[in-house]
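My current task is to audit a protein record that another person submitted. I need someone to confirm that the token line plausibly describes how this chain folds. Take the sequence as given and treat only the tokens as open to question. This is what I was given:
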Amino acid sequence: MDLPHTQAVTAAERKAISLKVAWRILPFVSLMYFINYVDRTAIAFAAPNGMTEDLQLTATMFGLASGIFFIGYILLEVPSNILMAKFGARVWFMRIMVTWGIVAALTAFVQNFEMLLVMRFLLGVAEAGFAPAIVLYLTYWFSNRDRVKVISIYLLGIPLSSVVARSYLADSRRRRGVGT
């Protein structure tokens, strides 16, 4: 038995609905992912601009500080997605963004290697599950047919963030008089 509100949707209507949803959701999640990726890789741009000298980091220390982010991220990635399914995307994305913002802001006050390790680990914990949660969230809104296009648009945040961060680094180094 068909309910009155369940009508067959034509291909044109489905396409129009998907396009409308895409224009409402994709700009925001793409911007979040763009910022996420810039923030995750910011340490690579901070190092040649004085961070290694200020914190007296060796190459090994820098590598450990860079990599410890992923330990926190990997450990809590799956639990984060389970909690997103429990609490809902809106609440969970807000939690991720707020804790991530707080930890990222506190990173500005790092004064030694140990503090850097703690903040990078906490940044990984705060961001844990963000990228997979976005992909899961997109599956709620888009059919299998449209999902490939939508996720590829979302993933454009990676190369765009790299371009912006590299141009910022080059500009910063040029202003400081350091060769690029």
About this structure: The CA atoms of residues 28 and 62 lie 32 Å apart.
